[in-house]
Amino acid sequence: MEQRNHTVVTEFVLLGLSHSRQVQLVFFVLFLLSYVVIVLGNLLIIVTIKANSCLTSAMYFLLCNLSFIDLCYASVTSPRMLADLLSQRKTISFNGCMAQLFLLHFVGAAEMFLLTVMAYDRYVAICKPLHYMSIMSRPTCCRLVAACWVGGFVHSIVQTILTIRLPFCGPNKIDNYFCDVPPVIRLACTNIYVIELLMVSNSGLISLACFLVLLVSYTVILVTVRLRLRDGKWKALSTCASHITVVTLFFGPCMFIYLRPFSNFSADKSISVIYTVLTPMVNPLIYTLRNKEVKDS
């Protein structure tokens, strides 16, 4: 049939986190408060760093960019989720779904790369302190941040093209509260074996590679800190501890979702809450509570 060569699904139905109206109202209050904390917390960090002339090192420049990314990342899914929690009919157009999918992977991959850059920044600060200012200069930091965004764009455009070229002719119910590659491609009217392998090689392996780089970086840092504790390196250890907390919260769920092709667990959408809502919310708390300079400012 000719329809097989064309997209006949014009909208998707998002099943959300629960079918119970009472539970949805509870989720609305919780996620609304979470989103307010995300917006205010990350904006406060950005304004504080920009307004304080003492916070000019590479670490604070990267932290400012992380807060901006967290703000964008949460805004891709949270406003739509909040609206759907109060709506009887939770639908999203095909184009809107593809746009959300693109933005989610664009900003999410940029955050992965930025967290890797932040680990490198801490490595240089602790292992090569005398060369820190020259290695992590402002032009270098700007180039690294730009590379994170470019890498995120390339990753996301590949994911989106692979998804948008699939034929969708029904069903159109997505078992999640936002559009993401795994639940969307399972609705395609074709064999998705190759697409799922590409998804693992793209999203899954990128997550795993960044996580392994981070793991090696922080292992080297912790070894170095242990050897230099008598020189007053507890502050550096505290900073690394906050980074490791963020990395665990962000990369753990991502690897669980994207490194498992050909399987779909009901817990996937609950785990998605961790990296779409919880991580952007706790980042400001983790970085401010464990950083004396930011708290003082």
From TrEMBL:
G-protein coupled receptors family 1 profile domain sequence ranges: 41-287
Pfam family, one: 7tm_4
Taxonomic source organism: Terrapene triunguis
Alphabetical keyword list: Cell membrane, G-protein coupled receptor, Membrane, Olfaction, Receptor, Sensory transduction, Transducer, Transmembrane, Transmembrane helix
TM spans (from-to): 25-47, 59-78, 98-120, 141-162, 205-225, 237-259, 271-289
Gene encoding the protein: LOC113408837
Protein name: Olfactory receptor
Keyword Amino-acid biosynthesis: no
Family stated for the protein in its record: Belongs to the G-protein coupled receptor 1 family.
Bilayer disposition of the protein: Multi-pass membrane protein
GO cellular component: plasma membrane
Localization, UniProt: Cell membrane; Membrane
GO molecular function annotations of the record: G protein-coupled receptor activity; olfactory receptor activity
